[in-house]
Design brief:
Largest sheet: 7 strands, mixed
Order of helices and strands: EHHEHEHHEHEHHHEE
Strand content: 15-25%
Structural class: alpha+beta
Number of strands: 7
Oligomer: single chain
Helix content: 25-40%
């Protein structure tokens, strides 16, 4: 039986979090779009309270009651109202991998990334990370949580349904007509679909697009 815990990321978690990213985003997702250790170190420097991990301990399997594994991670930054509403591509919006657009006086906590170990999906790890983000929005008195979510089921679905665009796909997911392994869980967490941004990042499965989602406290 695993015991999960969501908590702020520490420098000691970085190596495990980097390994988790590679496990969660295999090809065709481009490896050059994954965080490196120096990126996560910078996130902890500029906004430590916005970086989270979920760890789990299984005494029987690990053999060491003090040993913990990072099974989920989430990176966030604060955006100005203007930056959020522009809905630019991921790199422009975040200011690159080191989050140069982080604005401590902004209005929107932006979810730049989330990773959940494939063997622990469907067990509440993702929800714990989102609840940690929502709690931070409340504590900091921010206007909203926002993110641009991958839609990895679009590529296969559109091959069987030619002529449809990403916004058609997202609306069908929102209405429950079809399911997407990334977008569907986020809608269940209470985020609202507000649109689609094209050319969000190079992402073959999503057709380079992302669903724009908001949560308002």
């Amino acid at each position: 039986m695993f015991r999960y815990e969501a908590r702020p990321m520490t420098a000691g978690d970085i190596r495990s979090a980097i390994g988790l990213q590679h496990l969660c985003f295999p090809p065709p997702f481009p490896a050059e779009q994954l965080f490196r250790a120096e990126h996560l170190e910078r996130h902890l420097d500029i906004f430590p309270e916005g970086q989270f991990v979920v760890t789990a301990r299984n005494d029987a399997l690990l053999g060491n009651p003090k040993k913990q594994s990072v099974l989920g991670s989430a990176s966030t930054l604060i955006l100005s109202e203007e930056t959020w509403l522009a809905h630019d591509d991921w790199e422009t919006r975040c200011g690159g991998f080191t989050f140069k657009r982080h604005d401590p006086h902004g209005t929107t906590l932006f979810g730049a990334d989330i990773s959940v170990h494939p063997g622990h999906r469907g067990r509440g790890v993702g929800r714990m990370l989102y609840e940690a983000r929502f709690d931070l929005v409340r504590r900091l008195g921010l206007k909203r949580f926002g993110t641009a979510c991958r839609i990895p089921g679009f590529g296969e679905w559109s091959a069987a349904n030619p002529g449809y665009r990403q916004d058609d796909y997202c609306r069908l997911v929102e209405e429950g007509e079809i399911s997407d392994r990334t977008l569907t869980p986020l809608l269940r967490y209470g985020l609202q679909l507000t649109g689609v941004v094209e050319n969000h990042m190079h992402d073959e499965e999503s057709g380079d697009a992302a669903a724009i989602l908001e949560w308002v406290p």
